[in-house]
Amino acid sequence: MSFDGYKDKIEEGDTVILYLTITQVYCIKAEPKTLNKKGNLIENVFQTPYGALKCAELIGKYYGSKISLSKGWGYVLQPTPELWTITLPHRTQIIYTPDMSMIILQLELCPGSIVVESGTGSGSLSHGLIRAIKPHGHLYTFDFHKTRAETAQEEFKDHGLANYVTVTHRDVCENGFGDDLDNKANAVFLDLPHPWLAIPHSLKSLKQTGGRLCSFSPCIEQVQKSCLMLLKLGFQEIQTMEVLQTQYAVQQRSLPVVNLDFLKSEKDGTETEKKDREMIKTITAIPPPTQPGHTGYLTFATLPPIWARNLQISLNQDDINDAD
Length: 324
Ligand SMILES: C[S@@+](CC[C@H](N)C(=O)[O-])C[C@H]1O[C@@H](n2cnc3c(N)ncnc32)[C@H](O)[C@@H]1O
Hints:
By secondary structure, the chain is of the alpha+beta class. It contains 8 helices and 19 strands. Helix content is about 25%, strand content about 30%. The strands form 6 sheets. Strands 11-10-9-12-13-19-14 form a 7-stranded mixed β-sheet, with helices on both faces. A hairpin with a 6-residue loop joins strand 16 and strand 17. The chain starts with 14 loop residues before the first strand and ends with a helix. The model has no long low-confidence stretch (mean pLDDT about 90).
């Protein structure tokens, strides 16, 4: 229950983030017992590179406190969508924090927003979406993989988020998002292999006053098909971007500096530039030798209010016909 708001102390059943180093971050359950592979109840012990941790000992500890291990120490932190994303059990490819931030910004999400998402996958993005729209908003998330939908549902319940999310097992390309959601959503997010097939259903779900749509695709061919469908259906402000995070290293370096003083001739008073250079130590930001690779394209679009749509669709159809 540790995802829904902050609290001081770890309670039994909480999902806790164990932070050892920047590359050694884990999620663990503050539960005295766990089931082994044979289905027997055993003591819940988490093995770390710095020694074993008895999870029962976490109960009652303050979030943020330092805990001792036999060969080192770590910190126990309250989970956030960012920490969950780097520690969650992967069932699929997931959306990471840089893309997640851009999605939440561009979809203009705020507390109270109604969001439709497919597919749910490992629930990485869902956690970020829920935090952005709670306490009065709601996430409707769909996946056609039964076990993934069920596991995500269990996880949301376990994290105390069940009131903010409805998980549905459905093929959204075939069957859409359901009549119940007609004209309800402020925003739709698609992370699907064939997003262009779900875009007409998204149109039905978005509010008559309009809304925003985002589709995440790794391949440019998927983007092209989605953009054509968005254009055909009267979406506007269609924009595709890629978020490439660059991390600069801050280092001290010696740099040559030109001495700009002038030398004045005693003979005739003429000035000549001093040509000497001196080395000074300075703090610099060094760009990485290699850039992070491609993750995926984010395509955003705006659905205008209903009164502005019909005119736009006929204009767009003319564009498509001209292009053909
Ligand atoms: C890449 S994963 C989504 C990951 C998710 N965004 C996250 O951050 O964890 C794509 C998911 O879409 C689901 N999916 C694919 N086609 C679908 C369809 N037609 N209807 C519903 N779900 C679909 C897959 O089962 C898979 O779980």
